[in-house]
Design a protein that fits this description.
flat; about 160 residues; mainly alpha; three-stranded antiparallel β-sheet
Length: about 160
């Protein structure tokens, strides 16, 4: 058994595809003339998908720092695409919602996503794409469980001090 890293190992391939897909998406959005940056477009899509969520939860889902998301949200709010509302359960927190003005932009971003994914998945049969999506969702769930376990362990260590 060789201990040399295999660049075609599943983990490496997933990381490569993820990185390349993100860069391709960013190029698409940057050249589409939508009037927002790729980061703002990603943030808007996540706000729409997680409508009424807290900024912290959206940032976590995006894999970015809450302060980075805050910059994107400030700009989206100034453009009238999102609004922040007080969280009735926590006066310090804000819930993030899209506005009607965001609908056309969300559709335009979605068109870019669909076209990009058609190119990326060219030559893959629909049933294979569905199977891959299901497997990746399972992996995402497994990773979320690992993350939750690690948070619980970290929390229990902190409270034991």
């Amino acid at each position: 058994m060789s201990f040399r890293p295999d660049p075609d190992a599943l983990g490496f391939v997933l990381l490569d595809v993820s990185r390349m897909l993100r860069h391709a998406f960013e190029r698409c959005i940057a050249t589409a003339g939508l009037g927002v940056t790729p980061g703002e477009a990603r943030a808007l899509v996540h706000v729409a998908a997680l409508e009424g969520s807290r900024q912290h939860d959206i940032a976590h889902r995006m894999g970015i720092e809450p302060m980075t998301l805050s910059v994107y949200l400030d700009r989206l709010q100034s453009l009238g695409f999102i609004e922040r509302r007080p969280d009735p359960g926590d006066r310090r927190a804000k819930l993030i919602f899209t506005t009607g003005a965001a609908d056309a932009l969300i559709r335009a971003v979605r068109v870019e996503q669909v076209e990009l994914m058609a190119q990326v998945t060219q030559g893959i049969a629909p049933e294979e794409k569905e199977r891959l999506r299901d497997q990746l969702k399972r992996m995402r769930g497994n990773l979320a469980a690992i993350e939750e376990d690690q948070r619980a362990i970290s929390h229990s260590r902190e409270t034991a001090r």
